[in-house]
Specification:
222 residues; alpha+beta; 5-stranded antiparallel beta sheet; 5 helices; 22% helix; globular; binds glutamic acid
Length: 222
């Protein structure tokens, strides 16, 4: 179980996400990644095995800019600690998810989702979450409603954060068994596994309770 950082703001958030990951390094991890809704209007990511400094170097070589994003340090439970298994995981280049915890029924969900035509690109339990959410979005256009329906089918422990290229004004989070805290800013809001990651940007926090789903926008948290 490692770390999650997320942000929705009006300024570029890449440095905030990276600094947040560094502040979560004490939790231990084997790889790190970041996904941003870029200024070009698409989801883009960089992932690296090893330290956050490797990710930082990758971003220095190939910068990513954006005002909505999620980042992750991984402690592999399902699938080797390599770049392909590092989070964020995508579905259809439209959704990105980061997850801390374990999805116990991932095998059953994976088979069902494969039957529905989803192609898996990692060995993680996490990837079922993002394809399941993509599938649920066929019944509702609302990301929060779809996330609520998706998490009902997950057995296990999760703290997770989601962004969508189709609804780029919000960051979604769900908690069951892994801690998550929202950091409240002025015209910008944040999410992390531990408030330590966010003290660089705010000193106002709101903890998610077990079973909570949060919709975090620049000006509001629901
Ligand atoms: N179970 C997930 C994986 O192996 C998440 C691990 C974590 O909490 O970092 O990718």
């Amino acid at each position: 179980m490692c770390g999650i950082v997320g942000a929705v703001a009006e300024r570029n958030i890449t440095a905030i996400l990276l600094e947040g990951l560094k502040r979560l390094e004490y939790r231990g991890y084997d790889s790190a990644g970041v996904a941003l809704f870029s200024n070009a209007g698409v989801l883009e990511r960089r992932r690296r095995s090893g330290k956050v400094s490797e990710l930082e170097q990758a971003l220095a070589g190939e910068p990513l800019l954006g005002r909505l994003g999620i980042a992750h340090t991984r402690w592999a439970t399902h699938g080797a600690p390599c770049e392909r298994n590092a989070h964020p995981h995508f579905s259809a280049d439209e959704l990105a998810v980061v997850h801390n915890g374990i999805i116990e029924n991932h095998e059953i969900l994976r088979e069902r989702l494969k039957g529905l035509g989803y192609v898996f690109s990692s060995d993680t339990d996490t990837e079922v979450i993002v394809h399941l959410l993509h599938h649920k979005l066929k019944d509702t256009p609302d990301l929060a409603v779809a996330l609520k329906a998706a998490v009902k089918e997950l057995h296990g422990a999760y703290g997770l954060a989601v962004i969508s290229a189709k609804q780029p004004d919000r960051l979604l989070a769900a908690r069951s068994g892994s801690p998550l805290v929202i950091g409240l800013g002025l015209g910008e809001n944040f999410l992390a596994s531990d408030q330590l990651a966010l003290r660089q940007v705010t000193d106002r926090f709101m903890y998610l309770e077990e079973g909570d789903i949060a919709e975090i926008r620049r000006e509001s948290v629901q």
